[in-house]
Design brief:
single chain, alpha/beta, Rossmann fold, N-(1-d-carboxylethyl)-l-norvaline Dehydrogenase, domain 2, 2 domains
Length: 278
């Protein structure tokens, strides 16, 4: 039987790779898998091999389809001894579907999306939102602590996913508004850089703006959180609004701006690349 300090990480993108490193530094023996093979310590041949080696497995894959593909690949290797920690942002309905499937195998499931991009992951500063019961959280907590500065419990499975999607909409809309203001400044003959000084003592200043504005001014769109992944979350919010017959004009406009960027080939750039439209 695997040691309790053995943890699996599925998905070695921007975040998953760094989380795996933090887990190793915290003393865990880490087994990993990625759809595209990578030269990463502990890389195993399949999700099933990770399940055979580990009892706690954290998912950092792109969407709900990828989560189901991983569960398909695990097959009978997924058993009652396992705890699946889902840190993919897949929306509340998708999370409930996945949780049902995992629990039907007798395994535990924790809804554990995170906030924080590349820099936060590298600095051991992710924030996890948690949906799930006390027992499952207790099992997963040491794993989550290895890569986070805070863990916030939200309630039941699906509720953490809901909050995560909605907070990402705030991020996306903020950056779209910032891009538009920079474009107007430039059109009016002012240097966009003046916005840094203007916001320094303004109430709207935020860690998000502090983090993203310098890169936007420099034209640096290296991905910390890609446009395609942010658009996915904005679309999830639109779907939730439609289900409740809510009109979400700001969310719609933000999605349209991001769709335009996708059409220009910016899918893998940072979501701040919406500024390139101007």
């Amino acid at each position: 039987m695997p040691d309790k300090r053995t943890v699996g990480v599925i998905g070695l993108g921007i975040i998953g790779t760094q989380v795996a490193g933090h887990l190793r530094n915290a003393g865990f023996a880490v087994s990993v898998w990625n759809r595209t093979p990578k030269q990463e310590p502990g890389f195993l041949a399949s999700p099933a091999a990770v399940a055979e080696a580990c009892e706690v497995i954290q998912f950092f894959v792109a969407d709900v389809h990828a989560v189901h593909e991983v569960l398909d690949a695990m097959g009978d290797a997924l058993q009652s001894r396992h705890t699946i920690v889902c840190s993919a942002t897949i929306g509340p309905e998708g999370v409930l579907e996945v949780a049902k499937r995992v629990q039907e195998r007798g395994a535990r499931f924790l809804d554990a999306p995170f906030t924080g991009s590349k820099a936060a992951a590298g600095n051991h500063a992710l924030v996890y939102y948690i949906g799930g019961n006390d027992e499952t959280f207790a099992v997963a907590k040491p794993v989550l602590e290895a890569s986070s500065k805070a863990i916030v419990r939200m309630g039941k499975i699906g509720q953490a996913a809901l909050v995560k999607v909605l907070t990402n909409v705030i991020n996306a809309a903020t950056i779209e508004a910032l891009a538009e203001t920079l474009a107007v400044l430039k059109a009016e003959g002012m240097a966009p850089e003046i916005m840094t000084a203007a916001l320094e003592h303004h109430g709207i200043r935020s860690p998000m703006i502090d983090m993203k504005l310098p890169g936007m001014l420099a034209g640096d769109y290296a991905p910390h959180f890609s446009l395609k992944h942010m658009l996915k979350d904005v679309k999830l919010s639109l779907a939730l609004g439609a289900k409740s017959d809510l009109d979400l004009p700001v969310t719609k406009a933000t999605a349209e701006a991001m769709e335009e960027g996708m059409g220009k080939g910016w899918a893998d750039l940072d979501f701040t690349s919406v500024l390139k439209r101007y």
